[in-house]
Structure formats: structure tokens, C-alpha cells
Design brief:
alpha/beta, eight-stranded mixed beta sheet, 407 residues, 10 helices, FAD/NAD(P)-binding domain, binds flavin-adenine dinucleotide
Length: 407
């Protein structure tokens, strides 16, 4: 039975929403989670790779969801391959089980998790928020003190606060396992520079996937055909991936968390680490009765440097041609083979900067390549400045203040 009045209304029963719900309910708040699907975690759209830092930072660690653990990671470049290790094993989780266990925890802490409940829109009233929900039985309104948009990449709550987003796409096929024993990351054509593919073990199965520019999800086939013999496929899944952080994660009584806020790593596009850190920080602000803007400030203080550095690196990679990238990657692989460094899935910009430092002498010897990289850096900085300047116009013209008229 859906409560009509509550402290916190959370739209979206993914990891970000469920963690926020469990932590806020544990602290004594009344929480309602609205999930549009029949079951939380289904359909899944995730490879499920969590770096050790992410796994250890989770307040709830459902072991039942862990399918694989590995310290080995291979980077495959057009002409080369480097095998590296991580300080501690990364885990690969089954997202359907992971999300279901988080939902159980939220329920155990006293939150109400309502499935087949689709938020159609919401608005801020003077002393609270009001959300319009489509249930099987019909449309109802619920009121709360706070509204949390944890409704993923396509968030409607994000539109409500006037933010807009650009996307990449992630798609993967699942098939029976054919010799895959560690994480494999492919920076190779036919994927465009700055994008990548993967193959990971998943119990009896393996997942082969790509992150590609929006509308180019078919690159999955070209990539898979080029690198593997595809054979029989169990199924395919995918989803949108935000390309950047929103300009504002919190306004008044409304906050965004997880993919809806664009809390996604710029290089690998993984969202669970930053989204769960968002959930922890947001629930602390809710429990302390602080302004939601303090959640945003704390989250940004912790992650902004890493994110900005990651975005700049991605812009550099995207600005290079495959001709230049081949050289960069072959230098990187020979340097990394000589001076291996530990891969940190949750500190990717620092890992790449450290690897680049070891390559600097080789890059400096190739003047044309050095010039291309400097040009790429210039483009990255200029691109970042232009995006920052353009964003307010984009968000005000594309966003909608409210998604439904007040009744
Ligand atoms: C192919 C692919 C592979 C990926 N692999 C990884 C990986 O290995 N590691 C990693 O860290 N990240 C990965 N990601 C990203 C990761 O899946 C997301 O960052 C993560 O799921 C975000 O969690 P979230 O809770 O913010 O949103 P979601 O998990 O998207 O959850 C949002 C929930 O809100 C619900 N919802 C949406 N709209 C409404 C509405 N109006 N009303 C009610 N409910 C609504 C949805 O049904 C959904 O359950 C991958 C993404 C893709 C596409």
C-alpha cells in the first residue's frame, strides 16, 4: 500500500536510489522508493564490474551477487597487449541479484519499495514536494519533504530541475564462456578513438560489449566480429550512458543522484562507484536536515579533480586519429611492460597520468606526436571551457521546469 505522505520520495530503484533509501531509512526517515519495473534490477544493463575501492566503500556488500573476482586486467591495443594487475581483486556482480539484495536491505531498514510505480513528474511546493505516480490501479499523487531523482540516465526528475544531458551508448552480448579468464579492455578500431570494448568472464558465460557514440550501438557487431568469432548468443542488453556531470545536482528540495546526475567515470563510464558515493553523501545530508546543496558541495569536493582530469583525457583521446593513437598505445604498452603500475579502476585519471609520466621521454622523441598531444590538450581545455559557457543556455532551453501542471 503506497503511503501518500512521507519524508523522502525516491524515483528509481537502481543502486543509487536503493542505497539512499536504505541509509536514510536506517537513520529514521520515512522513505518511499518508486520503481517503474515489475522487479528491481530487471532488465539489467550493466557489465557489473566493481573496482575494489568501490566494493569496499559500499555500506552493504551482497556477497550473493558476486559472480567473479579477479586481479588481472589486459589492455588490448591495435598492435599490442599489456597484462597488468590491480592492488586487490575487482568483483563482477550479477546486477539483478545485486539490486534485489539492496532492495531487501532498504525494506529491512523500513523503506517502502513500490514496483510498477512510474513517476510521471513532480514539483516543488513551498514546504515540500509532490510527485505524480502511475500505478497499475491508476494515477496517484504523493507528497514528501524531499524528492530524490535516482531514475537513471533518462531521468525525468533531471528534466524537472531544468538540466539536460548528452549520452553515449553501452551494449553487450552474453554468450557461453570461451576461454575468458580476466578483464579484457580493447582500445582498437573499429571503435572510434576515446571509446572501448570489453570481454569479461561471468560464471559459465562471458560478456562482450562496447561503449560507443549514441546511435552507433551497431559497432558491437563490427567489434565482436573483428575480435572474436561470435557464435551463439544468449542475449543482448544495453543502455544510455551520461557523458558528463549535470551543472546542478541539488536545487531546493530536489536532488539528483547516480546516473541521473551524470555521476559516471569519464573514461570507463562505470557509474556504480560514483553513484553509491552520491547515495552515501546524500543520505547524510538528508539525515542531518541540511540543505541539499551541501550534498552537492561535498560530493564535488571529493570527486571533481578526478572527474575533470578524466574528462580532459577523454577529450584528448577523442581528438586524436587512430594513426596517432596507435603510436601512443604502443609507447604506453612498452613503458608499462618495463615499469608496470597497478591499475586502479576507481582512480582512472591518476592511473593514466602515472602511465603517461613513464612514457614522457619516448613521446618527447617523436615531435609530431608530441605536437598532436599538445594540440589535443589545447582542444580538451578549450572544449571544456566552451561547454561550461554553453551549458546554462542548453539547460534552460531544453529543460522543463515542471513535468505536469499543478492540480
Ligand atoms: C552496457 C553497460 C555496461 C555497464 N557496465 C558497468 C560496470 O561494469 N560497472 C559500473 O560501475 N557501471 C557500469 N555501467 C553503468 C551502470 O549500469 C550505471 O551507472 C548504474 O546502473 C547507475 O545506477 P543508478 O541507480 O543511478 O541508475 P539505474 O541503475 O539506471 O537505475 C534507475 C532505476 O530507475 C528506474 N526508473 C527510471 N525512470 C523511472 C520513473 N520515471 N519512475 C520510476 N522508476 C524509474 C529504472 O527502471 C531503474 O531501475 C554500465 C552501463 C551499461 C549501459
Amino acid at each position: 500500500m503506497l503511503r501518500k505522505e512521507t519524508d523522502v520520495i525516491i524515483c528509481g530503484g537502481g543502486p543509487a536510489g536503493l542505497l539512499t533509501a536504505a541509509l536514510a531509512a536506517r537513520g529514521g526517515l520515512e522513505v518511499v522508493v518508486l520503481e517503474e519495473h515489475e522487479k528491481v534490477g530487471v532488465p539489467a544493463h550493466c557489465a557489473g564490474i566493481l573496482g575494489w575501492r568501490c566494493w569496499e566503500s559500499l555500506p552493504y556488500r551482497p556477497r550473493e551477487a558476486v559472480v567473479e573476482e579477479t586481479r588481472e586486467i589486459s589492455f588490448i591495443f591495435p598492435e599490442d597487449k599489456v597484462d597488468l594487475t590491480m592492488k586487490k581483486p575487482a568483483v563482477i556482480v550479477n546486477r539483478a541479484v545485486f539490486d534485489a539484495k539492496l532492495a531487501e536491505e532498504a525494506l529491512r531498514q523500513g523503506a517502502e519499495v513500490v514496483t510498477e510505480a512510474r513517476a510521471l513528474g513532480g514539483r516543488e511546493l513551498g514546504d515540500g514536494v509532490k510527485v505524480c505516480v502511475k500505478l497499475r490501479e491508476g494515477v496517484v499523487f504523493i507528497r514528501g519533504k524531499y524528492l530524490v531523482g535516482a531514475d537513471g540516465a533518462r531521468s525525468i526528475i533531471r528534466k524537472m530541475v531544468g538540466e539536460h544531458m548528452s549520452f553515449d551508448i553501452g551494449v553487450q552480448l552474453i554468450r557461453s564462456r570461451k576461454g575468458c579468464s580476466s578483464l579484457e579492455v580493447y582500445f582498437t578500431p573499429p571503435l572510434p578513438p576515446g571509446y572501448f570494448g570489453w570481454r569479461i568472464p561471468f560464471g559459465e558465460l562471458e560478456k562482450i560489449g562496447v561503449v560507443a557514440p549514441l546511435h552507433r550501438g551497431r559497432l558491437l557487431w563490427k567489434f565482436s566480429e573483428k575480435v572474436f568469432t561470435i557464435g551463439e548468443i544468449s542475449h543482448i542488453e544495453g543502455g544510455l550512458i551520461p557523458r558528463r556531470l549535470v551543472r546542478k545536482m541539488a536545487r531546493g528540495r530536489v536532488a539528483l543522484v547516480g546516473d541521473s546526475a551524470g555521476q559516471v567515470k569519464p573514461i570507463s563510464r562505470g557509474g556504480i562507484f560514483l553513484g553509491s558515493a552520491g547515495a552515501i553523501t546524500l543520505s547524510e545530508a538528508l539525515l542531518a536536515g541540511e540543505k541539499l546543496e551541501t550534498y552537492e558541495k561535498r560530493w564535488r569536493r571529493r570527486f571533481l579533480m578526478e572527474l575533470e582530469a578524466g574528462l580532459a583525457l577523454r577529450r584528448i583521446l577523442e581528438s586524436l586519429s587512430w594513426h596517432d593513437l596507435r603510436k601512443v598505445f604502443s609507447m604506453a604498452s612498452s613503458c608499462l611492460r618495463e615499469h608496470p603500475i597497478e591499475v586502479d579502476l576507481d582512480g582512472q585519471a591518476s592511473f593514466i597520468f602515472n602511465s603517461t609520466r613513464t612514457c614522457l621521454p619516448s613521446i618527447a622523441r617523436d615531435l609530431r606526436l608530441a605536437a598532436q598531444l599538445i594540440k589535443g590538450l589545447g582542444t580538451a581545455v578549450l572544449g571544456g571551457v566552451l561547454l561550461e559557457l554553453a551549458a546554462p543556455y542548453g539547460s534552460s532551453s531544453l529543460g522543463h521546469r515542471y513535468c505536469y501542471a499543478d492540480k
